[in-house]
From TrEMBL:
Pfam families (UniProt xref): HATPase_c (PF02518), HisKA_3 (PF07730)
Positions of the Histidine kinase/HSP90-like ATPase domain: 303-401
Lineage: Bacteria, Bacillati, Actinomycetota, Actinomycetes, Kitasatosporales
Protein name: histidine kinase
Enzyme class: transferase
Domain Signal transduction histidine kinase subgroup 3 dimerisation and phosphoacceptor span(s) in chain numbering: 193-256
TM ranges: 76-100, 112-129, 141-160
Molecular function per GO: kinase activity
Cited SUPFAM superfamilies: ATPase domain of HSP90 chaperone/DNA topoisomerase II/histidine kinase
Organism of this sequence: Streptomyces nigrescens
Keywords, alphabetical: ATP-binding, Kinase, Membrane, Nucleotide-binding, Phosphoprotein, Transferase, Transmembrane, Transmembrane helix, Two-component regulatory system
PANTHER family noted in UniProt: NITRATE/NITRITE SENSOR PROTEIN NARX-RELATED, NITRATE_NITRITE SENSOR PROTEIN NARQ
EC numbers, comma separated: 2.7.13.3
Reactions this protein catalyses: ATP + protein L-histidine = ADP + protein N-phospho-L-histidine
Length: 404
């Protein structure tokens, strides 16, 4: 029980320490500690070695310790300032930390060699120089070895830390490069799969639509009923239009896959000029109120988005509100999406469905309005779709011309 309680206390203390380290004060401490701790160690070294009585030695040593505050910005100058502290005050921490910083940040061979010789000289020669005894061979040899180790250790550690940082940076660059290559490989796989799906879509859908067109042509030739002939002609025109748009989409997909030559000669995309024809062929009771001249805004992408919005809305009316009356309105706007600027406003409003009309059984994935909303957002516009109080439905979209 005692061990369990002690373990809980240790876990709680560790959790509090991690929370403190991740907090604001922890981040500040991690930023300040590498600058302040070496200075405090050097000051403690100066006080312990020289005491508080030796004014010159203590003063030079404290100046050398305080200079460490600027060691990252001026490593060579700071190291030179610490040398009098070693020579006069016999301190070690300040010059060794200065030399370590110099090796980690300015690792020139000649510079480090000269600085190592200066530190050895400051350590080997006594203060004052008159106290130097040339005949004390054993003691001089020990001091020289100690001075060489004192200068070599911080240089080796500084170079090691610099190499470690460079290796970490190279590993990070290599990791980013591998991730980028993985993304490029994934994009290439997606592109290949997109081209394959485009070919399959063309083979399947084009075959079925071609059969529909042929059957409609046969009905148009064989029937004597004028209404049936007109309907068959409409079916053929719609089939031809569908094949043209399918060819365009397949060409775009293959062009994204790298077959740039297949993107040339594609069928033009529909715009507002095609809108009256679309309404005429929709077989719905549609009232069109158009206040926009096709091409007046100079943004074909916006006009194409408006055409697709009307097309999808009419398809939804045909599916869910058979026999309903529809009003389509396309107007220019001086302010769209709450911002001033020319744009296009599209509204498709239908009433409640006719109870006597038979709803056609048409497939649907439920993604039409979602796709329209994503298209509008990609152009910087908005799309709203909701039920009305009279049992109908309204689709309202706004597109800025600047996005086209």
């Amino acid at each position: 029980m005692v061990r369990s309680g002690g373990g809980r206390l240790l876990a709680r203390g560790a959790a509090r320490w991690r929370a403190f380290a991740a907090g604001t004060w922890g981040r500040r401490l991690r930023r300040i500690a590498p600058v302040v701790v070496p200075v405090l160690l050097a000051i403690a070294d100066a006080v312990l070695v020289n005491g508080l009585e030796l004014a010159l030695e203590l003063g030079v040593s404290v100046v050398a310790a305080a200079a460490l505050l600027l060691r990252r910005r001026f490593p060579l100058l700071v190291f030179l300032v610490t040398l009098p502290g070693l020579y006069i005050g016999y301190i070690w921490f300040a010059p060794m930390i200065g030399l370590y910083t110099l090796a980690a940040r300015r690792p020139g061979r000649r510079r480090l060699g000269i600085c190592a010789v200066l530190l050895i000289a400051a350590h080997f020669l006594p203060y004052p120089i008159s106290d130097f005894e040339l005949t004390a061979y054993r003691e001089n040899t020990l001091v020289l070895i100690d001075a060489c180790v004192t200068s070599a250790a911080p240089i080796a550690l500084g170079l090691l830390m610099r190499t470690r940082r460079e290796l970490a940076s190279r590993v990070e660059d290599l990791t980013r490069s591998l991730r980028r290559e993985d993304r490029l490989l994934a994009d290439r796989v997606k592109t290949t799969e997109r081209a394959r799906l485009a070919r399959e879509m063309h083979d399947v859908v084009a075959h079925q639509v071609s059969l529909i067109s042929l059957q409609a042509g046969a009905v148009q030739v064989s029937t004597e009923d004028e209404a049936a002939r007109a309907g068959a002609r409409t079916i053929r025109e719609l089939s031809v239009r569908t094949l043209e748009e399918l060819r365009h989409m397949v060409g775009v997909l293959r062009a994204d896959g790298g077959d740039g030559g297949e993107a040339s000669g594609l069928a033009p995309q529909p715009d507002l000029e095609e809108l009256p024809r679309l309404l005429e062929m929709s077989a719905l009771d549609v009232t069109y109120e158009g206040g926009v001249v096709a091409g007046a805004g100079g943004a074909k992408t916006v006009e194409r988005a408006a055409f697709r919005t009307v097309q999808e809305a009419l398809t939804n009316v045909r599916k869910h509100a058979p026999g309903a009356r529809v009003r389509v309105r396309v107007d220019p706007a001086d302010e769209v999406c709450g911002e001033a600027g020319p744009g296009l406003r599209v509204e498709i409003r239908n009433g409640p469905p006719d109870a006597t009309a038979t709803a056609p059984v048409l497939p649907g994935g439920g993604h039409g309005l979602v796709g329209l909303r994503e298209r509008a957002q990609s152009l910087g516009g908005t799309l709203e779709a909701r039920h009305t109080s009279d049992g109908g439905f309204v689709v309202r979209a706004e597109f800025p011309y600047g996005a086209g």
